[in-house]
Amino acid sequence: MLYVRLITMRLLKAVVVLFMIIIFNFVLIQLAPGDPAAILAGEAGATDEEFLRQLRERFGLDQPLYVQLWRYVSGVAMLDFGFSYRQQMPVLDLILARLPATLLLTGTAFVLSLFLGIVAGSLAAARVKKPSGSIIMALALLFYATPLFWVALMSVVLFSVYLDLLPAYGMYTVGAGHTGLALVLDVGKHLILPATTLALFFMAIYTRMTRASMLDASQQDFVKTARAKGLKNSVIQRRHILRNALLPIITLAGLQAGQMVGGAILTETVFAWPGIGRLMFEALQQRDYNLLLGIFFFSAALVILFNIITDLVYGLADPRIKEGS
Amino acid sequence: MKTPLALAIAAAALSVSTVHADEPRHGGTIDTIIQPEPPGLVLGMIQNAPTRTVAGNIYEGLLRYTTDLEPMPQLATDWEVSEDGRTWTFHLRDDVSWHDGEPFTAEDVVFSADVFHRELNPSARAVLQHIESIEAVDDYTVEFTLDEPFGPFLISFEAGTFTMIPKHLYEGTDFRDNEHNNHPIGTGPFKFDSWDRGTVIQLVRNDDYYEDDLPYLDGINWHIIPDGASRAVAYENGTVDVLPYGTVENFDIPRLAELDNTCMTEAGHEYFSPFAMLWMNNREGPTADKRFRQAVMHAMDREFARDVLWNGLGNVPLGAFGSNARFQNPDLEPYDHDPERARELLDEMGYDGEEVRLLPLPYGETWTRWAEAVQQNLREVGIEVRTEATDVGGWNQRLGDWDYDLAFTYLFQYGDPALGISRTYLSTNIERGSPWNNVEGYENERVDELFNEAATAFPDEEREALYHEVQEILQEDVPVGWLLELGFPTLYRCDVQDLVTSGVGVNDGFKDTWLDR
Amino acid sequence: MTDSQATPLLSLRNVSIALPKGADRALAVEDVSYDVFRGEILCVVGESGSGKSMAANAVMGLLPKGVYTSGGEAIFDGQDLLQLSEKQHRTLRGLRIGMIFQEPMTALNPLMRVGAQIAEVFEAHGQFNGRERQQKALALLTEVGIPDPDKAIRAYPFQLSGGQRQRVMIAMALALEPELLIADEPTTALDVTTQAQILELIRDLQQRRGMAVMFITHDFGVVAEIANRVCVMRYGQIVELGEAEAVLKHPSHDYTRALIEAIPSDVIPEARGAETDTPLLEVVGLNKVFRSKGGLFKPAREVHALQDVSFSLVKGETIGIVGESGSGKSTLGRCVVRLERPDSGTLSLSGTDFMHLQGEALRRERHRVQMIFQDPYASLNPRHRVGYAIAQGPIANGTSKGQAMAKAKELLALVGLDGTDDRYPHEFSGGQRQRIGIARALAMQPELIVADEAVSALDVSIQAQILELLEELKQKLSLSLLFITHDLRVAAQICDHIVVMQHGRIVEQGPAREVFLAPREAYTRELLDAIPGREHELADA
Amino acid sequence: MSFFARFAQNRGALIGLIILLTIIAMAILAPLLFPESPWRMVQRPFLPPMEVDGFPLGTDTMGRNVAAGLMHGAWVSLLIGLVSTTVALAIGVPLGAIAGYYGGLIDDALMRFTEFFQTIPNFALAIVLVAIMQPSITSIVLAIAIVSWPPVARLVRAEFLSLRNREYVEAARLVGQSNTTIILRQILPNTLSPIIVLASLMVATAILLESALSFLGLGDPNVMSWGYMIGAARTVIRQAWWLSFFPGVAILLTVLALNLVGEGLDDALNPKLARERS
């Protein structure tokens, strides 16, 4: 089928982009001051030349840069992302261990923000010039303007400390030994605060976008046609205006989904969520190059994946693209 | 004459551990925090603080030390030294087995010290260079022969420095790729159970531990929570019972200390005696002038820093030797907070307002605030300061390259000046690339001589005289700024009993701990 | 045919419609009264801004936001439509009054299948079940003459041509057999041949069903083609109302007369003799292919916009390039001015090769051929004063700024806009902007001017003025003109020579009189036959 | 209607402008009202708001005047917001203009380049850049600019794509104007209004980004910025809520004001849209 060929082409393009990203990041990270061996040695509390030499040799840091790059790239080609200097584990294992947590967090936040944003945005669009519509938009603007980490801090203080309703950090209750449904509920409870915090900002974006896009769509000629048919306003809003308004939102959502991984760094730090964002920040501070490169690679791959998914969804939503010739 | 020291020491150890009238009780798991997450748990291969704290319960050394840094028996029951101070003989317990059931013998001691640590462990190498040979006399006796008497020898057997590593699992392998690194095997009171990266490390009771009745706890959960505020919440809502040093921000400590059923101790750090210092680049710029360095000492309000930033914990040091250090000279002239005097000194040297760069220590909020306070102190006596923020990587690099004017750091004193203090001032210790040696570039032949003689002088009275003299010189030259002997508090629920029972108690104390619930 | 004694189906009485504050006038429609009877087609005619479609929108309850009826009544079957609530209006729309719009491209929801959009009409009024609705939709599509209705019902709007979409719109509007159909400029966006077909369809359906049609248009040709009665509007008021025959033949009002006269007639002027025989522009075997790159979902495409096009133009001559959309006439114009580069063939101007010029060399020669554009609103940079807009060409070619500005003033006077050089484009009307566009072209003293649909976007009365101006300038400055248009009547009026194009090829070319009065090719005849109101005018002549 | 009248029709925009002017006034007046360095430790730490005269917002963990910090911080936040936006525009506008105007291979190459930057999550890239260059005003401004130019380039490219075939541009080409002149004089002035609107929103985003960087400890240690104040107060949020509350509100208000002003500008610069929206 045509689809298969096109997706294959996209994947090929993705490989090229990923390859460029590897090189870009590799060079970028080399520009950072600080020798990873020295940092490791520093953490050990004492050093001598022998120790540094051992570390450099062990991680191949004594090789010329192009050799290091070549080794890295050829490793990645075989899905070998190297060894984390500091965590003493293969990078792939570390990332795969943390990735589900990030995907759970960002996925939940994404779905939540998209759903609530579209609902709130449609309501606001349908209530233009009415107080209820203005209140929705004022709230959206407020969430948009509020620093994410600040909301996170405030919500911990409010919901965990003063109200004691929700756990403040972590992904599950350690030592509780939950399994099955109990574990799901436990994780769910831990998920509420970080996911909501992360979702608020993006929800604000989707709300504003949905409203603008709906108002735009409601100016279109076919809306007048629909009214001339005698269709009810609610049907027009849903079937004609919203459906058309969703197209630009799909594009935006595809872009934002990738950015959420970045936003997760702050959320994961405040809520101690054991995800890839936090891992990245730690890896950066420790100059854990291989780990950092690996995380960059995976987050870029995620972004590309989201872009491809976005294109596919867009193709499904817009017949002009799917069946166009 | 061989001196059996052990008996007296054992008595001292008893006095530390039996503070409470109640009989210790078995049972319960303790929840605490480890911050940051350690890179691995094999002591000796990795020696950073979090590794020591967790692995100190899995691995053991030959000796422990009291909070006064006197040795106590551990894997060695007793020991003696030859009259010339060069041969030390240790007698080992014969009832010890590794967590995998294999017996612990003198061969393990020789392997650990002579092979494993010699290859991997730089702090052990500092001691090993004074050792001529290590031999197993029989299964339970080991003999160390030194090339000449070495003052701090006996204080080097703490678990973090000379950890005992199982020879049968490591010999002949690539130590760093050994499969047991992910499941460490030691002789300690707790066994490694699991490590959920980013979340928790769990240890369980070693039911076959050789000391009767010990340990009392069923296990330890080390929670990993990367945010300071979240860690405080974890203590408040009862998830964890113990907050080791460095897990919550200093600003939070007074508030937490006032919570119900909360006790605080500063004990358990005596062996390390962390000492905060301000590196001052002796090579170039205004800091190369002794009067400038003296002015900095007078300009800084160290009491303010202690009271506001460190909750009044810790000591403003007199000079280069901390109050816990052996051989401190009590007759030195202290540097008081005296901005007037600082300005006079600056005038005298003709300071022209040249900018100096200040590197804070990238170890968290308190250190950042401290740098801000010092920056402000210095500005107020007319010194132009620009703070240059770095992360750990940048900080290491800048110090290693001597690319700084003023820089914060803190160093452990390791109980003996020859281990923890002289390294900062010996000109032979000037070498690019490390942030832990004589980074300031201070060179004074007399100081070198005095430190070197004192390290190998025998007995202690001789060492004391030498060390007193060196302190007087340093006091005048101010090679570095002496900021604060840090007091690291541990917060815990008061019903957690016998939490700290040694001079490295934060690392090996859970052995004796029990829950009074 | 009209029974004036019968009760009207719809009766507008003294209807006034107010515009929002800040508009150019207070009332869009002022005190308008007219009736629509069963079985008749009433044409409401007017130029842009006459308010001709406002009343219709008010009848449908579809007035734009901010616009509201400020007086009068619209009686339909005994009830005043202007007093209905939205809900009451809704039960009427689609069921008893249907409506079709100008832009078939945008009036259908691009994301819904055609069948579903038709079925929606039944759904809105709760009629039939799902299967029946589809069957009904199919029957309707067949009735409006869509080819292959089985396929069309499953098609998305973008898969249909403009004419087909307008048929779908008509099918939708007629689904529930309404008594009144409002058609708001339904053929304006269509090609002339398609327009003829749609007009025929509407007339056909109207007669078969005996319904009333209110047909809104700006084109008297269309009126002549379709109307029973005519209502002429200007500035929101009715200037004339009466039987179509009477109004067209004997307009009683000056404005109506002016409008009818402004329609270019088929009275074709004799070709003027060319000044020389040496061709100014020579086009031989010109080819141009557009290639679109494929994307994720679309394969690459090729469009042959020009195929083997040859003609020549002598100095002082006006050649008209006519054709429907997609015929390649605009591409040809753009190739001649070198906004596009032809793929092959020759293109020479007074003997110099104009086709292979590139970069700086091309830039230096550009002044020789200038263009007048279609859209008066897009052809002037909104941020530049018009004096500067005219002067910047000469300035770019090395004339001093002072001289160029003085020349610009002169040219503005020449096109009838004396003393307006320091105004911005938005201060001018469409016709005035087109005059500025002409002045800008003249400022370069070109050898040849290409006018690309230069009057298509203008109202008919303005169109006439601009054509007059061009005619005058032609005489005064002996211009050579390549006049591109879809409107054969316009071409007939101004051109000496006609080139008819279709699908990128020249179908026929020759002196204007010959092509119009004795076309050799079937396609040319088809085009000529499709001109609305042609029979009427020919009968008139 | 005049530009300002159109702007003032949007009540939110007017409120936003008033807030923004207040903040700008704060920034300008800071050295006059609080001539002492905001770093100076002047009172006992953790002084609650309104407790001691001269300390309306209390003192922070080290006894520094929060009000002084807030006023001086306004300057830093606005400066970083403005400068980084300017730098981002300086990168994005030419790239977008060239890509949109010339199209073809140049467009392809430049857009691949832009997409490439969008493939790395913004915030992560900003963190890495600041960490690599070491935190300072310059590195923060650069990092923010580097992660925020792609939307500018895309916007400008889209505008150029739609304008480059406008008839007045073609007319300019026909009279022999050079590409540079056409880009600078014909097209660019007509893309200014969406750029101005985007820029006002970018300033807001830049301020948020700076605060997030400072929150993670990647701020310039020599300047008192709001993000720094929250970052520094985050550990004591339980004892001293006002330390993170006031700077948080300051950021919120500034970002809010900039967004409101941006919307107002949008309305005023695109009157047609505004009418449809209201």
UniProtKB/TrEMBL annotation, chain A:
What's a single GO BP term from this record? transmembrane transport
Identify its membrane topology class. Answer: Multi-pass membrane protein
Extract the Gene3D superfamilies matched here: MetI-like
- Which regions span the lipid bilayer? 12-32, 103-126, 138-163, 191-209, 246-271, 291-317
Q: Where in the cell is it found?
A: Cell membrane
Which Gene Ontology CC terms are recorded?
plasma membrane
Q: Which UniProt keywords apply?
A: Cell membrane, Membrane, Transmembrane, Transmembrane helix, Transport
Name of the protein in its database record: ABC transporter permease
Q: Which residues form the ABC transmembrane type-1 domain?
A: 99-314
Say which species the protein is native to.
Halomonas salipaludis
From TrEMBL, chain B:
> What is the species listed in this Swiss-Prot or TrEMBL entry?
Halomonas salipaludis
Q: What are the recorded GO MF terms, alphabetically?
A: peptide transmembrane transporter activity
PROSITE patterns hit by this protein: SBP_BACTERIAL_5 (PS01040)
* Signal peptide positions (record): 1-21
Q: Does the keyword Signal apply?
A: yes
> What protein name does the entry list?
Peptide ABC transporter substrate-binding protein
State the similarity comment. Answer: Belongs to the bacterial solute-binding protein 5 family.
One biological process term from GO is: peptide transport
Fetch the InterPro entries from UniProt: Peptide/Ni-bd, SBP_5, SBP_5_CS, SBP_5_dom
UniProtKB/TrEMBL annotation, chain C:
In the UniProt record, the signal sequence range is none
Which intervals hold domain ABC transporter?
A: 10-260, 284-528
Q: Which GO terms describe its molecular function?
A: ATP binding; ATP hydrolysis activity
Pfam families, alphabetized? ABC_tran (PF00005), oligo_HPY (PF08352)
Which SUPFAM superfamilies does the UniProt entry name for this protein? P-loop containing nucleoside triphosphate hydrolases
One of its GO biological process terms is: transmembrane transport
Reactions catalysed: a dipeptide(out) + ATP + H2O = a dipeptide(in) + ADP + phosphate + H(+)
Q: What is its main location?
A: membrane
InterPro entries of this UniProt entry? AAA+_ATPase, ABC_Ni/Peptide_Import, ABC_transporter-like_ATP-bd, ABC_transporter-like_CS, Oligopep_ABC_C, P-loop_NTPase
Keywords from the named record: ATP-binding, Cell membrane, Membrane, Nucleotide-binding, Transport
Documented EC number(s) = 7.4.2.9
Entry membrane topology: Peripheral membrane protein
Broadest EC class? translocase
What is its subcellular localisation?
Cell inner membrane
Q: Which GO terms describe its cellular component?
A: plasma membrane
Query: Which family does this protein fall into?
Result: Belongs to the ABC transporter superfamily.
Q: What is this protein called?
A: ABC-type dipeptide transporter
UniProtKB/TrEMBL annotation, chain D:
Q: Which SUPFAM superfamilies match?
A: MetI-like
Task: Give the way it sits in the membrane.
Answer: Multi-pass membrane protein
Q: Which PROSITE patterns match?
A: ABC_TM1
Listed Pfam families: BPD_transp_1, OppC_N
Q: Recite the UniProt keywords alphabetically.
A: Cell membrane, Membrane, Transmembrane, Transmembrane helix, Transport
Task: Kindly list the residue ranges recorded as spanning the membrane.
Answer: 12-34, 74-102, 123-147, 195-219, 240-261
Gene Ontology BP terms: transmembrane transport
The organism sits in which domain of life? Answer: Bacteria
Location comes to: Cell membrane
Q: What does UniProt give as GO cellular component?
A: plasma membrane
Q: What is this protein called?
A: ABC transporter permease
The chain positions of domain ABC transmembrane type-1 read 74-262
Which InterPro entries does this UniProt record tie to the protein?
Answer: BP-dependent_transpt_permease, MetI-like, MetI-like_sf, OppC_N
The record's family statement is: Belongs to the binding-protein-dependent transport system permease family.
Q: Which organism is it from?
A: Halomonas salipaludis
